[in-house]
Amino acid sequence: MILSLLFALSLEANMSPFFIQISDALGAAKSGDSKLAKDIMVEFQEQFNALNINTVLSNDVKQRLKAVLNDTSVENIESLSSALIAFEKEQNPVDYEAKRAKFKQKVMPLYKQLVNATKDRDLEQIPSIFKRFYDSWQRNERVVGDLSPWHYGKIETSMALYRMAMVSTPSDIAAMDSKIIELGEFLNDFLAGNTKEIKVDGDTLEELKRNLTLLDEAKDLIGIDNAKAKSNILNFITNWPLFEGEIRTRSANLYNAIESDLPQIAADIDSLKSINMLNNIIDNINSLDFNANYNAYDVAIVLIREGVEALLIVVALLAAVKTGNLQRAKAHILGGAGIAIVASVFGAATLSYLFPLAAAGTNREILEGIVGILAVVVMVFVVAWLHSKSSLKAWNAYITKQINRAVASGSLLWFGLLSFLAVFREGAETILFYAGMLPKVQISSFISGIVGALAILILIAYFMKFITSKIAMHNIFKLMSLLLYALGFKILGVSVHALQLTNIVPNSIISPIPSISFIGFYNTLEGLIMQIAYISSVIILALLMRKKAV
Fold first, then answer.
1. Residue 387 contacts by C-beta under 8 Å, 6 or more apart in sequence?
2. How many degrees, rounded to 5, is the angle at CA 334 between CA 385 and CA 487?
3. What does the DSSP 8-state code read for residue 202?
4. Is-contact 348 474, C-beta < 8 A?
């Protein structure tokens, strides 16, 4: 089901892998890791050449790619990005003239109603008309942003300033007259077919961070210098189009709050309500974790945990057939484990190929959240099962039951099937966990985590061969289960946070409590409830299964 979903999403985002690779390479270049940036671009080159498309714009991409491979500078990668955007538009053309006509049809009648209400000084009807106009603008604004970012920014700013004048006490009629005319000029200029780009000094995340200081200063200036505080908020509103995408893709609620509440805050700068609204906006922006990634340790723990469980079961089976004088079963056990590993690797390779195609923008966050939560649900029952085997009596009873079933069946193939199922189950769970982690882990960390885990598993397997008879396997299950409990807590927190950033789950900030992204804890009421429920469920289920096993 998951693979089908990924494949369906990939059909809608066939260029997404290239943009993701450019983004990753750009991040590596900015951090000074030119080797990683070049490795990513080599992979980009292989995949782009595989498209086998020869046009002027595709050749432009290839030429700029050569420059990147010679020098992985930020400027060269950004140049490649521009060429890729042009190529993508060529391959997936959009009828912008039709979209411009639709924009005019949907937005301009409401603008004219707002103009007439402003001229008539109909202060009772103006707020509701403005809301309808603003809602229509939000539904149709994309064409303006795509064709003319400059017009988009000017229109957004004019609307914000009109709203600020409208909600002032009393309403600032002169400012409303001025801004409604200004707004019309920008709308009509865009509809006339004029376009204009805007230049952002630096990346959008840095723009956001710089402008956030304006709100921080405004908060401190309220009651001391209200004029300066108001000026800071107006500057933030003016610059908003430069970095709004950083907020829009992470929290639709916060995006809407900034656009609707900031003008009202500026209009009534020193009221208690405005102060609380400004504090909430600042806290919500700060709560967005732009760099919440899993690390190599997290990747390694998953494979070690699942690998050790599979090793324990296989080694226990090998030890059992040795003592039970069933030497011929050894080949079946090892063969079943080998087939299971191949099957798991094939599934992982398929998922790794399909996942980046779906992991773009909002889809990326939603998919990460859903798969991550699914992984935690599976893990709750798996670890509860482990707890039920964490006593020596229960573990021995479990192994004896499986061996007796195999012997009673009269077929040594049962050993191979049991080994296959044990190993493949762990492989399938590993894939499920990694699917939830992939969007939030650097490729270098992912690879190093896998390599490190495999090295540890090889050592564990080597030592198990000699000390099987001396190790209390049930105690190893206890230790590894505790590690998985901790990782499950983090995966759940990160997954719920991802769904909050895409407006799938509500996002209620608990201001006094700090976020601790390293352990996957975020200061939201919904996340806290989910993690408390998680802890409670694993404890209750483990106790129930432990009691049943006794």
1. 477, 478, 481, 542, 545, 546
2. 35
3. S
4. no
Tokens of 387: 């707890």
Q: What is the DSSP string of 210-233?
A: HHHHHHHHHHHHTTT-HHHHHHHH
Q: How far apart are CA 340 and CA 428, in angstroms?
A: 10
Distance CA 14, CA 319 (A): 50
Nearest to 319 by CA among 307, 309, 327, 308: 327
pTM, rounded to two decimals: 0.42
Predicted confidence (pLDDT) at residue 132 exceeds the cutoff of 80: yes
84 vs 19: CA distance, rounded Å = 8
Distance CA 191, CA 200 (A): 24
Whether residue 518 has pLDDT greater than 80: no
CA distance from start to end of the chain: 37
CA-to-CA dists, residue 149 to 88, 141, 152, 269, angstroms: 19, 11, 5, 29
DSSP character string of 274-312: HHHHHHHHHHHHHH--TT--B-HHHHHHHHHHHHHHHHH
Q: What's CA 266's distance to the chain center, in Å? A: 33
Cα distances from 465 to residues 46, 311, 317, 333, in angstroms, run 43, 10, 12, 15
* pLDDT tens digits for range 429-487: 576 567 656 656 677 777 888 888 888 888 887 777 666 556 555 555 565 566 667 76
Q: What share of the chain is helix, strand, coil (3-state, %, to 5)?
A: 80, 0, 20
| CA atoms within 13 A of residue 504's CA, in its CB half-sphere | 19
Q: With both helix axes pointing from N to C terminus, report the angle between 226-248 and 252-267 in degrees, rounded to the nearest 10.
A: 170
Whether 340 contacts 427, CB under 8 Å:
yes
Q: Residue 462: what residue type?
A: Y
Angstrom distance (rounded) from CA 140 to CA 106: 8
Q: What is the pLDDT of residue 444?
A: 77
Q: 524 pairs with which residues across the strands? A: 509
Say whether pLDDT at 8 is over 50. no
370 vs 504: CA distance, rounded Å: 10
CA distance 367 to 446: 19
Structure tokens of 377?
């649900």
- Closest to 234 in 3D by CA, of 158, 142, 121: 158
The three-state (H, E, C) secondary structure of 49-70, written as one string: HCCCCCCHHHHHHHHHHHHHHH
DSSP 416-447: HHHHHHHHHHHHHHHHHHHHHHGGGB-HHHHH
Taking each helix axis as running N to C, give the angle between helix 126-140 and helix 149-167, from 0 to 180 degrees, rounded to the nearest 10. 160
Distance of alpha carbon 487 from alpha carbon 498, whole angstroms: 16
Residues facing 184 on adjacent strands = none
